[in-house]
Amino acid sequence: MSQDAYERAGVSQAGADSAVDALVAGLRKHATEDARTVPLPGHYASVVRLDERTGVAFTTDGVGTKLLIAERLGRWDTVGIDCVAMNVNDLICVGAEPLAMVDYLAVPSADPDVCGAIGVGLGRGAELAGIEIPGGELAQLGEMVAGPDLSGAAIGSVALDAIVDGARVEPGDAVIGLPANGLHSNGYTLARRALAELGMDDDRLGRPLGEVLLEPTEIYVRAVLDLLRSDADVRGLAHITGDGLNNLKRLAAPVGYTIDEPLPVPAVFELIAELGSVSEDEMHEVFNMGCGFCCVVAAADEDAALELLRRHYPEAKRIGRATGRDGVVERS
Fold first, then answer.
1. 320 with 293, same domain?
2. Are 43 and 249 in contact (CB under 8 A)?
3. How confident is the model over 247-285, as pLDDT tens digits?
4. In CATH, what number is assigned to the domain containing residue 139?
5. Which conformational region is residue 38 in: left (phi greater than 0), alpha (psi within -120 to 50 degrees), or beta?
6. Sign of the alpha-carbon dihedral angle for 20, 25, 30, 31
7. What predicted TM-score, i.e. pTM, was given to this entire model?
8. pLDDT tens digit string along 17-76?
9. How far apart are the C-alpha atoms of 320 and 160, rounded to whole Å?
10. Where are the alpha helices (DSSP H) in the chain?
């Protein structure tokens, strides 16, 4: 595969960006002057003012083509965790405490065994995130879908004066990385193409490849909430998903970031790069490459923040710093 391996596999990030811009432009035609929405353009979650002090944070996301791995293995009990994780990890990026989520499951036809197993994962994800799942929707769509498609929408609460949007990030601030436990729920179209010749029982990674690929997305809620409730000056929070560490550019401050001490890269990424002939640059553009979440804190609070975060993730470390190069994320 060449530099544009992801596009050749069927996913165009540029096309997706253009489509989102068009969608947002259409929505703006109906915006009102008295809108309750807090302006957080391009951020991980949206916040709506409930009153003068309180905001409600919203986000929605799905599991994506990782579901094709679950279908191939006939194992559905972990993808619900992914669904919860992709939503609550975005919510906490604005400083919100996740409260609840509803799920949407589209299927060709209802299968009690599949739905029951997905429910197990959703329940486990809710437990890990400290949220409730009070309801959801099951849609039987026949020929519209080839297999189950799982997504959700989550809400949380945040004081309006405690929203974290990255606007206060300054050059020199510490970027602390929290480890990912695998691919999480992004880049699976490229991963499946690169690993297509391997069986799901291939054990060159130390355990069956299918297990590695189905490893559920890490849920960072408890660690990040502990950090937000501490005395550390938390200036930015970033869920590292598709686009890798470029997700840091979604924070509001006119700064850049240099990553000089990255977290270790799990072996599955090296295997994808090797078998798929994917360049290092593209790997970093598509995957988390071992870092699933970033916390940007004031330089003076780096040690205190690390001490707290390492109670949850002993491998957490400062991976870089904010710089004065606006919009530039560089690896050194």
1. yes
2. no
3. 999 999 999 999 999 999 999 999 999 999 999 999 999
4. 3.30.1330.10
5. beta
6. positive
7. 0.92
8. 677 677 667 766 666 666 899 999 889 999 999 999 999 999 999 999 999 999 999 999
9. 29
10. 5-8, 13-28, 66-73, 79-91, 112-129, 188-194, 209-214, 221-228, 267-276, 280-286, 302-309
